[in-house]
Amino acid sequence: MAVAHGIRMMQTGGPEVLTWGELPEPEAGPDDLVVRLHAAGLNFIDTYHRSGLYPVPLPYVPGVEGAGEVVAVGPGAAAAGFAPGHRVAWTSVPGSYAELVRVPARNAVTVPAAVSSETAAAVMLQGMTAHFLVTDTFPLGPGHRCLIHAAAGGVGRLLVQLAKQRGAEVFATVGSPAKAEMVRALGADHVIDYRTRDFAADVEAVAGPRSLDVVYDGVGKAVFEASLGLLRRRGLMATFGNASGPVDPVAPLRLMQLGSLFLTRPTLADHLVERSDLLRRSGELFEAIGAGRLDVEIGLRLPLAEAAEAHRRLESRTTTGKVLLVP
Ligand code: NDP
User: How far apart are the CA of 218 and the centre of ligand 1, in A?
Assistant: First the structure.
C-alpha cells in the first residue's frame, strides 16, 4: 500500500501524544476529493480532541481544517464540479493534519484566485465562527455594545473586525500588552488586559452597570460568571468555547435574577447545515479578504510534523491570530 505522512494519536493526553508517521494513502470515495495539503489550520478544538474533552475514536488523525490542491476526485465529486488541480479549502473534516486528506465534496469550497491557500485555511473554521456569531447568534448593528474575550486569538481578531464593520461598540479582553496593541489597531473601542485588570470593573467604569447587549465568550470558565453580570436586561451570553475550561452548570433561575438573560452555547456545525450556508459564509469571508476589508494574521507557521509544539504554544497563550501547520 502507498504511504503518505501525517500526525497520529493512539491515545488522548498532552501534546506528546501527537506523533509524526506514515499513514495509509487515502482513496477518493464516490463523493470525495483527495487533496494534497498546502496548510492545515490549528484550532482550539484540536486540543479538546487531543485531551479527550471532546471524545474521538482512536487511533485518530487530528485536525479538521485545511486547504490544498485536489489530486483525485470520485465521480460524484466530479459531477459537483471538482477536478484535479483545483484549489479547495474545508472545515469539519477529521484527519486534516496529513499530507494527503480525504475531503467529502460537501465540505469543500473552491478558493478564489485572490485568496492564498494559507489564508483560506486560516478562515474556514475561525472565520465562519466569527461570521455566524455576529450575523445569527446576536445580529450586531450600530448602537450595540459587545464584549469579545480573547480578542487577539484566531476567532477573536476576526470577531473584532466583523463587529466593528457592523457598527457595534467593542469591548475586548486580551492577555498581554502586545495583544492589547494589536486589538486596538483593529479598531476595538476599549481593550482590557484581563491578566492584570479586573475586566468587569473596567467595562462598568466605561459603560455603567449591566449595559452590554451581548458577550461573545470563547474563554469559558475563567470569565463566564463575571461576564454574565455585565449584561443588560434581556442581554445575550454566547458562550462558544472552553479555552480556560468548560463553564459550570447554570441554574435557569439565575438568568431571571440577572434580568431575564438569554444564554446560548452555539457551535459552527449548526450554522453549516445546508451546503448553501457553507458557500455563503465562506464566500462572504473570501470576498472581504479579496477586497482588503478583512485582515487575517498568520501569527505562527510550523512544519506539520511539529503539531505537538503548535499545541503547546496555543495552550500557553503565546499565539495571536492563526496558527498554521505546513507540510
Ligand atoms: P485562540 O487563538 O483564541 O486561542 C485561545 C485564547 O484563549 C488564547 O490565546 C488566550 O488568549 C485565551 N485564553 C484565556 N484563558 C486561557 C487558558 N486558560 N488557556 C488557554 N488559552 C486561554 O483559539 P481559537 O480562536 O481557535 O478558539 C477560541 C475559542 O473559541 C476556543 O474556546 C474554541 O474552542 C472556541 N471555538 C468555538 C467554535 C464553535 O463553533 N463553538 C468554533 C471555533 C472556536 P489571551 O492570552 O489573550 O487570554
Answer: 5
Would you say the CB of residue 299 lies under 6 angstroms from ligand 1?
Answer: no
The span from the CA of 142 to the CA of 160, in Å, is 14
Cell numbers describing residue 274: 445546508
- Pick from 132, 81, 117, 143: which is nearest to 267 by CA? 132
Q: What is the pLDDT along the chain (327 residues), one digit of tens a residue?
A: 567 999 999 999 999 999 999 999 999 999 999 999 999 999 999 999 999 999 999 999 999 999 999 999 999 999 999 999 999 999 999 999 999 999 999 999 999 999 999 999 999 999 999 999 999 999 999 999 999 999 999 999 999 999 999 999 999 999 999 999 999 999 999 999 999 999 999 999 999 999 999 999 999 999 999 999 999 999 999 999 999 999 999 999 999 999 999 999 999 999 999 999 999 999 999 999 999 999 999 999 999 999 999 999 999 999 999 999 999
For residue 220, how far is its CA from the centre of ligand 1 (angstroms)? 9
pTM of model > 0.90 = yes
The C-alpha atoms of residue 97 and residue 56 are separated, in whole angstroms, by 15
